[in-house]
Amino acid sequence: MERTEAPFFGRDWIDVHSITKSELEYILELSSRMKSAIKCKRVSEYKLAKDMDLIAALLFYEPSTRTRTSFEIAAKRLGMETTGFAGTEATSVKKGESLTDTVDMYDAYDVDAIIMRHPLDGAAKAVTDHLSKEMDRVLPCFNGGDGKNEHPTQAILDAFTINECCGRLHDLDIGIAVDAKYGRTTHSLPVILSNFPNNRFHIFTHELLRMPKSVLKFLDSKGIEYREYYEHGDQLKEMLPILDFLYMTRLQKERFYDEAEYYKARDMFLFTLAMMDLTKKNFGIGHPLPENKENPSIHPLVNRHPKYWPKKQAGNGVPTRFVELALSLGLAGSDFNGALFKPSDISDKFYNEREPDARKEDQGHVQIRPIENGTVIDHIEMNPYAVNRIAELLHLEKNGNVYRLGVVESIKRPGNKKGVLMIKDRYLTNDEVKLVATLAPGSTVNTIQSNRVTRKRDLYLPEVIDALPDMKCTNCGCITRLEHHEHVAPKAVRVGDEKTNLVKCYYCNNMMESHNLF
After folding, report:
1. DSSP assigned state of 419
2. pLDDT value at residue 90
3. Distances, alpha carbon 284 to alpha carbons 227, 252, 503, in Å
4. Hey, what CATH topology would domain 152-303 get?
5. How far apart are CA 311 and CA 316, in angstroms?
6. pLDDT exceeds cutoff 90 at 502
7. Domains of the chain by residue range
8. pLDDT digits (tens, 9 = 90+) for 450-470
9. DSSP assignment of 19-69, as one string?
10. Looking at the annotation, which residues are catalytic?
C-alpha cells in the first residue's frame, strides 16, 4: 500500500476541541471495522504499513500501561516499528534536556510519528507548535496525556465505548464521578460528546475536585445542560436510575492536603454491586483505569457484571489508536467526505479608532494637571491594581518618565469613578497599547499633541495575547512557567466576545482574568 496525502495526512491529535462531528463519526466507524478485522486476524485488512519502514516514537515521561501499550500494539498491528522510552530514568532528561530538544533528536532520527505523555499541562501543544516552526516535513504528534490538561485519544476510545454500550452518542445522561478536577480524561469526554445533540452531564465530585471552569464555560457556550453534585455521596445513588453511562475515575490521595477530606471523598464514591440494581437495562459503567487496589472507586465484585465496561474500554484503545495512526500517516482516510476541522480566523485588532471631539470634553472632576504632549489613558475600571500595574509594566519610573495617576468622577453619574494615567512626552508603541488593552479592556488611549487630543483608541481584549513582557500563566503546572525551564513563551486566547475580560492559556486551557497574566 502507498501513502497518500488524504484528508487526515499529517494530522496532530492534541486536543478534543479540534475534532468535528463528521471526523469522529468516521473514526468510530473505521475503528469498528478494524476491531473486527484484528479480532478475526484478517491481516491483509489491517497490516497497512507492511514493508514501509515506518517508526513511531513513544516518549512517555510518566508511567503508563494502557495508553503506551495500546499505542505500541496499534502501531505493530499497522506494520510499524516502535522506539522511545517509558520513564525518564535512563534518558538525557535526567541530565536536564528540554522537551523540545528531546523531540528534535527523534526528528533528526527520521521517526514518522511522535506519541507522548508528559507531566506538564500543555506539553503536547508546545511540541506541535515547535515542530510546525522547525520542520520541513510532516511529523504528526499524538497527545497521550499532558499533565491534568487533556487526553484526546482516550476521549475517542471513550466515545467508541459509550456508542457500543448505549447504541448512540446523543440524548444521553452521562455521569462523571470522583475526580473532575485533576482527571484529564474527564476534561476531554464532555467536549467530544458535545458534538452530539441533547446530551446531559451529571458531575459527582468532592467539593475540592470540581470540574475546571474552562470545561464548564465551554459547555455553557454550547448551551449544554450539566449539573454538579458535591454535597454528599447519596446524590450519585439518587441519580443512578436516569444515567445511561457512568464514567468513574481514580481518587488521587496526593491531591489532598487534608487527609480527612481524602477519606471523606473516598467514602462518597464507592460503586457497589448493590448500586447496579438501580441502573437502566442498557446502562454501562466505565473507568479509564488504573484502579487503586487499596481504595478502588468500583468495588471488585462489580468486575464480572455484564454492565462493567472498563476492560472492553481499555481494549478499544487499540482499534481507535490504530485508526488515528493510519489516518495521520496517510494509510487511510481517502474516502472521508465530511467536514474537516478548520482553525478559526484570528484577528490581531484590539481597539476601535474614534475621531476626537473638536470641542473640549467635560471629563468631570479631574484632580490632575493636564499635559501638553504625551499619552492619557482614561476610563480605566476602578481597580487600583490595574492602574499601578500599567505604570509599572510600562517602566515609567525606570525610564524617568513624568507621569501622574488619578481618579475621574463623572458629573452626570455621581459615584461613577474611573482611573486615569497621564504620561508626559511619551507615545505608546502598538505592543504597549496591547498591554494596556489586556490589563484594562474598556479603557481609552488618547494621544495628546499641543494640548489637543489628536488620536483616540477605545480598547478591548485582544483575541490572542502573546509576546508581552512579564506574562505568565497562573497554573503552576503549565509548561510555560519559568520554573520548569522548558522555554515556552506564554500565550493566552480570549474566551467569549470582546467585552469579556476572561482568557485561557493557549497551552494548558487554564482560565483566568486577563489582568492576572501579569
Report:
1. E
2. 78
3. 20, 23, 36
4. Rossmann fold (3.40.50)
5. 9
6. no
7. 16-150+317-328, 152-303, 351-460, 465-517
8. 989 999 999 999 999 998 888
9. --HHHHHHHHHHHHHHHHHHHTT-HHHH-TTTTS--EEEEEESS--SHHHH
10. 66-67, 95, 117, 151
- The letter for the amino acid at 253 is K
Compute how many other C-beta atoms are within 10 angstroms of the C-beta atom of residue 342.
8
* pLDDT for position 366: 45
AA letter at 373: N
Whole-number pLDDT of residue 367: 44
Q: Say what percent of the chain tops pLDDT 90.
A: 66
The reply to whether 152-303 shares the fold of 16-150+317-328 is yes
CATH classification (class only), 351-460: alpha beta
| Contact between 446 and 375 (Cβ < 8 Å) | yes
pLDDT tens figures, 293-321:
888 899 999 999 999 999 999 999 999 99
Predicted local confidence at residue 294, as pLDDT? 83
Sheet-wide strand order for 113-118: 81-86, 55-60, 113-118, 141-146
Which residue reads 481584549 in cell numbers? 461
Asked if 148 and 177 touch (Cβ cutoff 8 Å), the reply is no
CATH superfamily assigned to domain 16-150+317-328 = Aspartate/ornithine carbamoyltransferase (3.40.50.1370)
Nearest to 207 by CA among 175, 183, 230, 227: 230
CA distance linking residue 49 with residue 212, whole number of Å: 40
| CA atoms of 253 and 263, how far apart (whole Å) | 9
pLDDT band at 383 (very low <50, low <70, confident <90, very high): low
349-352 long-range contacts (CB < 8 A, ≥24 apart) are: 349/462, 350/433, 350/434, 350/437, 350/459, 350/460, 350/461, 350/462, 350/463, 351/433, 351/437, 351/445, 351/457, 351/458, 351/459, 351/460, 352/457, 352/458, 352/460
